[in-house]
Amino acid sequence: MQEFSTAIVGAGAAGLAAAISAKRRGTSCVVCERLPKIGKKILASGNGRCNLSNEDLSAGNYNEGSKGLVTSVFGKFGSSAIKDFFHGLGLELVSEDNRIFPATNQSSSVLKALELEIEKLEVPIELGFTVERIESGNKGFFVVSASGKRISCSSVVITGGGNSYPALGSDGSAYKLASSLGHTIVPPVPSAVPLMVKDPLCHLAQGQRIEAKVKAMISKEVVAQSCGDLMFTKYGFSGTAILDISRNVSIALNRQPSKSVYLEVDIVPFIGEDELASNIERAARDGRPHEDVLAGVLPLKISAALKWLISVGNPAIIAKKLKSMRFEVIGTRGWNEAEFTAGGVDALEVDPVTLGSKIKKGIYFAGEVLDVDGRRGGYNLAWAWASGFVAGTAVPR
Ligand SMILES: Cc1cc2nc3c(=O)[nH]c(=O)nc-3n(C[C@H](O)[C@H](O)[C@H](O)COP(=O)(O)OP(=O)(O)OC[C@H]3O[C@@H](n4cnc5c(N)ncnc54)[C@H](O)[C@@H]3O)c2cc1C
Q1: What is the DSSP pairing of strand 29-33 with strand 2-9?
Q2: Are 370 and 157 in contact (CB under 8 A)?
Q3: Residue 174 CB–ligand 1 contact under 6 Å
Q4: Residue 109: which CATH number?
Q5: pLDDT tens-digit readout, 121-147
Q6: Which structural domain, as residue segments, surrounds residue 69?
Q7: Domain co-membership, 11 together with 152
Q8: Is 251 helix (H, G, I), strand (E, B) or coil?
Q9: If you measure from the C-alpha of residue 12 to the centroid of ligand 1, how many angstroms do you get, rounded to a whole number?
């Protein structure tokens, strides 16, 4: 049986950062990864570009319940430390509107830099090792694989991620490990996820992208809003404007199912309501067919799909409707299309300085497995690197 000071569960962003920081301090550690390769989600991130951090990592960019943890961790390992870490690995970075990317614009460069450091430090990686149980052992713990392999260690860092994109490795099994050790799991819900609405317009205009202003409403209250790319799909909406507001919608749908959740969408944000009304009036006066009345303000697929609206007749009412179209949300596209998980191991059960468990001594957590989720824009990977680094530094040698 192999023996190490620390076993790290999961070779994603948090696990690799934890391994590097632990080994640099001289802690003998091993990384157990269920997939045949490490860092699969890093490769998929940012559409292959990997938006790996953000210049502004203030706690307001993360969920309310995580503020203490986030402030403490970034206080120790913030945006500059993350940049220095990657510079130290020989990776050049560029910043775009505060979002930080590898200068190569390729996530594979990020993974390569991490792999080279792991190799240099001679951190063993056990591939195809799904940690099924963590048992108490003579040294502290036994980390036990699904096939019965056992590793003896005095501490364990759980960095198995959340529930999102299970094909990339994180299948929720880290939550089972945490809860078997006595931890509370804040119910995980998909976040940064396309939304499903029941409206023939989406189906008719599928594939069409526009710029739009989107408000997420729960029982008449605006809970999130965004402006940007909106894509019509067969089932509803995708695009950055939707992904940005989807967290609040998903939480409401999953945790408050009795409330009605809808989107109010301005599909013509570049024009005021009065000007739009005059534009419609003029087009109608010119005798344009209904499907062409909106042809000058909306892509043809959408203007044709909205020809029924023109029969309302009153340009002011039509303009008002286009500035605030209402769509009832009936669900999200679920884990296979969610970039992050909202929810996870309760942040209050973890020491904000070490990320050690307050429930089971010798257990540490980092990354998405914790109930910490940030906005889109590099905040989630920043959390994974920083929390991984802090936990790896805190584990006993
Ligand atoms: C498509 C996509 C694009 C994204 N783009 C960005 C972006 O540009 N910027 C950004 O900030 N964030 C982005 N994210 C989110 C970000 O990638 C994640 O928040 C981050 O990678 C989480 O890192 P992690 O190490 O905590 O978990 P993961 O990366 O999920 O790693 C967990 C690892 O643990 C392994 N594992 C799980 N359970 C076990 C077990 N029981 N035993 C052994 N191994 C186990 C998994 O196989 C996996 O390798 C994106 C996510 C997706 C899905």
Answers
A1: parallel
A2: no
A3: yes
A4: 3.50.50.60
A5: 999 999 999 999 999 977 799 999 999
A6: 2-190+341-394
A7: yes
A8: helix
A9: 5
